[in-house]
Amino acid sequence: MADYGITGVKYDSIGKHIEWVKVGEFTGSSFGIRENWLRTKVISEFEKGKTFITVLKHGDRLKKGSDISIVTVNGKKYIRTDNNDKNSDNLKDIPEFL
């Protein structure tokens, strides 16, 4: 199981780069209270060896989504659920929050 799950994202004004994510920590069999993190914190924690997945709402339940990785394109790091070499973040079906 991953260390953290991401349930929401907030993109920049052009919708290409994630600025914030809504993150919860997995502790045993539970999923903790969600906090808003800057994308730089996600990248920093990832580089410290922490793992992340997307978490999707399915009815009244939460469901494990995709593994998240950091992809470097032209020296810049992006948060992605695929290994595509596009210069943008991509967390698939994670909803945007305000």
State the gist of this model:
The chain has 98 residues and is mainly beta. 9% of the residues lie in helices and 49% in strands.
Class by helix and strand content? mainly beta
Number of strands: 8
Which stretches are low in confidence, meaning pLDDT under 50 for 5 or more residues running?
none
Describe the sheet with the most strands: 6 strands, mixed
Approximate helicity band = under 10%
Report mean pLDDT, rounded to a whole number: 91
Beta-strand level of the residues, as a percent range? Answer: over 45%
Span between termini: 28 Å
Order of helices and strands: EEEEHEEEE
Number of contiguous helices: 1
Overall 3D geometry? globular
What Rg, in angstroms, do the CA atoms define?
13 Å
Fold topology:
Elements: E1 4-11, E2 18-27, E3 30-31, E4 35-38, H1 39-47, E5 52-58, E6 61-67, E7 69-73, E8 76-80
Parallel strand pairs: 1-5
Antiparallel strand pairs: 1-2, 2-3, 2-4, 5-6, 7-8
Explain what you see:
The protein contains 1 helix and 8 strands; from the N terminus they run E-E-E-E-H-E-E-E-E. The chain has 98 residues and is mainly beta.
